[in-house]
Design goal:
The complex is a heterodimer of chains A (about 110) and B (about 210).
Chain A: H1 5-12, E1 22-23, E2 26-28, H2 32-46, H3 52-68, H4 79-93, H5 99-108
Antiparallel strand pairs in A: 1-2
Chain B: H1 3-28, H2 36-45, H3 52-62, H4 64-72, H5 74-79, E1 94-99, E2 104-109, H6 118-121, H7 131-139, H8 141-147, E3 157-162, E4 167-172, H9 184-188, E5 211-212
Parallel strand pairs in B: 1-4, 2-3
Helix pairs in contact in B: 3-4, 7-8
Classes of the chains: A mainly alpha (about 110), B alpha/beta (about 210).
């Protein structure tokens, strides 16, 4: 149906639980890092490091986990936080990064008062 | 500032730093090219150059008689403008305009394939060709508009127009607030192809957001 990977990837999420936020018909990135993390996932899958569908399954799962969580102490809803979690999981599954490398990145930037 | 907002700010800063670190590591390992994120997003962020449809809409905003003719007889109205040959549907496809207005929002789809008014809008966006989008446009247009980030009031009627090889519909969106006193050329620069398919409104010239098509 689509000859461009980018088009296939973006349209596969339309009408699905993992559909990214849009504003006036275009992707909405509130912060530059949201655009970056979206771009990293797209480029790596386009380069063949993992199937887009495999990433999407992790994304749908990470969204469901948030929805199943308790309200108390739960971080506010943030699509790209869920996206980032799913990407990290996919990178480990694809053997691109180790769980230890991911943990090191997360540990280096803990929220000061969390 | 409340603790909650402070927490969110810090969470944002931490997320941004983590994404940067992850990206740097992937680049260092040679997995990710240093420019590949921009390349892949460029596919969505390339801004359509000046397109004919935008000039048609801007003319309709400043000239009520033209707008009237555009709705009544679209090819005839387009023919009065100084546009390149073929804009009036010379290849057999008949162009027809519908106007958004008080209480009415129009959405254009093509259930059969992906007929698109390309002489006025250029190449169709990727989602227009998606079978799921096409089916949902008919079945649940309001849900589609919500997903596309288009606020349509509950009491606004949503009309769906199905393009075909014979008729290619396009929308004349509403002129945004805050555009008084702008020239026709300046107005044309506000119009997006998405707004002429009904999956966007034309934003007020003062609004800014980081968006990518």
């Amino acid at each position: 149906m689509f000859t461009r990977f980018e088009e296939y990837a973006a349209s596969s999420m339309l009408g699905q639980p993992d559909s990214p936020p849009r504003l006036q018909g275009k992707f909405l990135f509130d912060k530059p890092w949201e655009r970056e993390v979206f771009g990293v996932a797209l480029s790596l899958s386009k380069a063949g490091y993992f199937e887009w569908e495999a990433f999407r399954q992790n994304l749908i799962e990470s969204i469901a986990e948030w929805e199943d969580g308790y309200c108390a102490g739960q971080p506010r809803w943030d699509y790209y936080e869920r996206f980032f979690l799913a990407l990290k999981k996919t990178l480990v599954e694809a053997g691109l990064l180790s769980a230890a490398e991911i943990a090191a990145i997360d540990a280096a930037f803990v929220i000061a008062n969390a | 500032m409340s603790e909650l907002f402070k927490y969110d700010d810090e969470r944002e800063a931490a997320s941004a730093a983590k994404v940067r670190a992850l990206e740097a590591l992937l680049i260092e390992k040679g997995v990710l090219g240093s420019d590949s994120v921009d390349t892949v997003l460029g596919h969505f962020e390339t801004v359509a150059g000046p397109f004919n449809g935008a000039r048609i809409v801007a003319r309709a905003w400043v000239d009520p008689a033209f707008k009237h003719l555009l709705i009544e007889d679209t090819p005839k109205a387009i023919a009065t403008m100084d546009l390149p040959q073929g804009m009036d549907g010379a290849e057999g496809e008949h162009m027809a305009a519908v106007a958004n207005g008080d209480g009415v929002h129009n959405l254009i789809i093509c259930t059969l394939c992906s007929c698109y008014p390309w002489p006025v809008l250029g190449l169709p966006p990727y989602w227009y060709k998606d079978p799921v989008f096409r089916a949902r446009g008919v079945r649940e247009p309001r849900a589609v508009l919500r997903e596309f980030g288009v606020p349509v009031a509950a009491d606004t009627e949503v009309k769906v127009w199905d393009s075909s090889a014979q008729i290619r519909w396009f929308v004349v969106p509403e002129r945004p607030a805050g555009s008084d006193g702008m020239s026709e050329e300046e107005l044309a620069a506000l119009v997006t192809p998405e707004s002429m398919m009904g999956v966007a409104l034309v934003p007020s010239p003062s609004s800014t957001s980081l968006v990518a098509g």
